[in-house]
Amino acid sequence: MSFLQSMFSLSGKTALVTGASTGIGQSIAVGYARAGAEVILLGHRDNLQETADIIEQADGVSHQVIIDLSQIDSIKEKYDALLSDYQIDILVNNAGIIRRQQAVDYSQHDWNDVINTNLNAVFVLTQEVSKNMLKRKQGKVINIASLLSFQGGVFVPAYTASKHAVSGLTKAFANEWASAGVQVNAIAPGYIATNNTQAIREDTERNESILSRIPTGRWGQPDDLVGAAIFLASASDYVNGHTLVVDGGWLAR
Ligand code: NAP
């Protein structure tokens, strides 16, 4: 094995990636498989086959698990039934939703859905997965945060609250588990072309204003996150509680 392979290879590792049907989760799942990991694809409906097919074409191995992460009360039961037989080395908490509405009109229903999926599920699923990691004294948890872990955003109060909290929770978990050999970090993607951002990309004025602020002058692609995700899953044993921004320079501006 070359020096680079031994630094970054995920061979022999099992990774669980939530929200692996599309977008950033799909790219990370495929990237991990290409780096040698066996990947468990988690989605909330039966639409994971496309990702599984891409992985198979790359000679990788994947498994599919259906769990609706917005249903907080059933995550532990589903984990016990579907995931407890796997020895998970890497957990990527990627699944997330966004609902847009002015704060004054924001519904309790949308608030609860976003907070449950983006934050509460991260807490509950990580608790479950970490038990085995802590026992084995090894593991990497990677949470997908956002630029809205740092900024307020417009018309997305629940999303902003959830992503600020994800960044804080990353540090809280990291502090408790660093000495037990489990690293917890986050990636904050900038503006990435996925379903999540389709509405703002279709709004010409908003799209132009976003593009004009990104130093690289382009939207990110889901594959732009793969290098950071592999690094945090491999050669990052002394990186703890960090939120790594991958944003084409947005926050530097
Ligand atoms: P996306 O294309 O909408 O993908 C979201 C993924 O989460 C999909 O696989 C979706 O499944 C899954 N998901 C949604 N609700 C779920 C639930 N209740 N249970 C299980 N899975 C669920 O969005 P994305 O842009 O790739 O977003 C991925 C992560 O990156 C999110 O946490 C998002 O907040 C974050 N992020 C994105 C951007 C960006 O610019 N795109 C920027 C910063 C952070 P279905 O497709 O079946 O609904």
Question: What does the model show?
Answer:
With 253 residues, the protein is α/β, with parallel strands linked by helices. It has a single domain, classed as Rossmann fold (3-Layer(aba) Sandwich). It is built from nine helices and seven strands; from the N terminus they run αβαβαβαβαβαβαααβ. The chain has helices at residues 3-8, 23-34, 49-57, 72-82, 108-136, 157-177, 198-202, 204-213, 226-233; strands at residues 14-18, 38-43, 61-66, 90-93, 139-144, 182-189, 243-246. The chain has a seven-stranded parallel sheet with strand order 3-2-1-4-5-6-7, sandwiched between helices. Helix 5 links the parallel strand 4 and strand 5 (139-144). The model has no long low-confidence stretch (mean pLDDT 98). The structure holds NADP nicotinamide-adenine-dinucleotide phosphate (NAP). Residues 18-19, 21-25, 43-45, 47, 68-70, 94-97, 117, 144, 146, 189, 191-192, 194-197 line the site of NADP nicotinamide-adenine-dinucleotide phosphate. NADP nicotinamide-adenine-dinucleotide phosphate (NAP) is lined by residues 18-19, 21-25, 43-45, 47, 68-70, 94-97, 117, 144, 146, 189, 191-192, 194-197.
